[in-house]
Amino acid sequence: MYQFSGKLKMLAIILMALGLLGTGISFMSAPKTLEEAKEILAKQNDAHHGGHGEAASHGEAKEAHATAAHGESHDDAHAEHAFHQMQNRPWSAVFVAMLFFLGVSLLVMAFYAAQRVAQSGWSVVLFRVMEAITNNLHFVSIFMLVFIIATAMHMNHLFPWMGEGVFDPKSPNYDPIVDAKAWWMNLPGWTIRGIVYLAIWNGLRFIIRRKSIEQDNGDLKLHKNLYNLSVAFVVTFMVTESMMSWDWIMGIDPHWFSTLFGWYVLATFLVSALTITALVTIYLRSKGALPLVNDSHIHDLAKFMFGFSVFWTYLWFAQFMLIWYADMPEETTYFVQRFNEYKLPFLGMVVLNFIFPVLLLLNSDFKSIPWFVVLGGIAILIGHYVDLFVMIMPGTVGGQWGFGIGELSGILFFAGLFIYATFSAFARVNPVAKGNPFLHESETFHYYNIQHRGEDNSHH
């Protein structure tokens, strides 16, 4: 049995404590009044323009004075908009990190369920690892539920369609485009759907995990029961994942839509989930907690990481290329903002999510070398966090973005929570799914065209 070490447990607690502290500082540092926001904007403007304003001629100054009255109201409107964006930034930082770890945990569960539905043999020795990772789903869902309730109570302004008067034709804030989508974009429906998503995912995960542990006694009826439950999870997941991506991500840009978006979000979380599974497996194997896992299992996980990195790139390019080629203003506005204000992360994530994995994992031999997989995995996780960052931040904070204490703290907190949830769950049960009828196939799984380092090949 694996022991959740005191050092690892302390690391998880320290990460969560630092994350909470940094998040608290981030919220306290956000401007509380419009005047504070104006001061921040003035400093940003001075830093941007430097001392160039001193070179203005007397005539230019006179002309600027003549237009001051006209520009004052515009400046106030801009300052108020920037004020809301600055207040959104701590919320957005937490939301990106929370949704990333929620999505990863959810997609590990989906991949696990798909393995059961496919009656896959190779992955059985990894079942306990995937079950442990999905334990994090319960923990993060609690925070997601709090976020849903807080958002429904208008404690943040992340979703523009939730603003006052957006659906009222008599209001100056009336938005006819959003109003046409009121059958879907309405606060009661959004709140109820979010709670239903979490309830379905957590309920099915809890039941499947419990029955999987019970199956250690070798009961084949439980195996059939787990197959049926996994089918139910895969079917409901495919529906709720797309709806979740519309509600929690695409809803941030309510004028824009893409019929490919649900698949794109799925690819982002799936690559990250496979990477996390590989990294946790490599770590536990190095500690001697997974005696039946060999280099061929690592090789297959790396193949999935490589394959779905290419799949993500295909979806990224397909979505971008079709919108660029059609050149319809209601669609291109999404990418125009990202090119203008987020060019470095928007283009940089392509390097991290495609070029880097391809260079590292294209070679078949490299896929079975743990440190190569870890190196590629780190790049993939950073790249897909940036991908989610670029999906959410432009619509919530606009040009007021950055990577500071709030963003780092969100990652630290949910990383610590992930470590605690995953390894505490793994330590509670037998690391081998003994009752699974495909266990022997998984135990003897072996590629003869790759080098198995540090293994006795006569055992295969």
TrEMBL record:
<feature type="transmembrane region" description="Helical">
    <location>
        <begin position="405"/>
        <end position="427"/>
    </location>
</feature>
<feature type="transmembrane region" description="Helical">
    <location>
        <begin position="304"/>
        <end position="324"/>
    </location>
</feature>
<keyword id="KW-1133">Transmembrane helix</keyword>
<feature type="transmembrane region" description="Helical">
    <location>
        <begin position="229"/>
        <end position="249"/>
    </location>
</feature>
<feature type="transmembrane region" description="Helical">
    <location>
        <begin position="344"/>
        <end position="362"/>
    </location>
</feature>
<protein>
    <submittedName>
        <fullName>Quinol:cytochrome C oxidoreductase</fullName>
    </submittedName>
</protein>
<keyword id="KW-0472">Membrane</keyword>
<feature type="transmembrane region" description="Helical">
    <location>
        <begin position="12"/>
        <end position="30"/>
    </location>
</feature>
<feature type="region of interest" description="Disordered">
    <location>
        <begin position="45"/>
        <end position="73"/>
    </location>
</feature>
<feature type="transmembrane region" description="Helical">
    <location>
        <begin position="369"/>
        <end position="393"/>
    </location>
</feature>
<keyword id="KW-0812">Transmembrane</keyword>
<feature type="transmembrane region" description="Helical">
    <location>
        <begin position="261"/>
        <end position="284"/>
    </location>
</feature>
<feature type="transmembrane region" description="Helical">
    <location>
        <begin position="135"/>
        <end position="155"/>
    </location>
</feature>
<feature type="transmembrane region" description="Helical">
    <location>
        <begin position="91"/>
        <end position="114"/>
    </location>
</feature>
<feature type="transmembrane region" description="Helical">
    <location>
        <begin position="190"/>
        <end position="208"/>
    </location>
</feature>
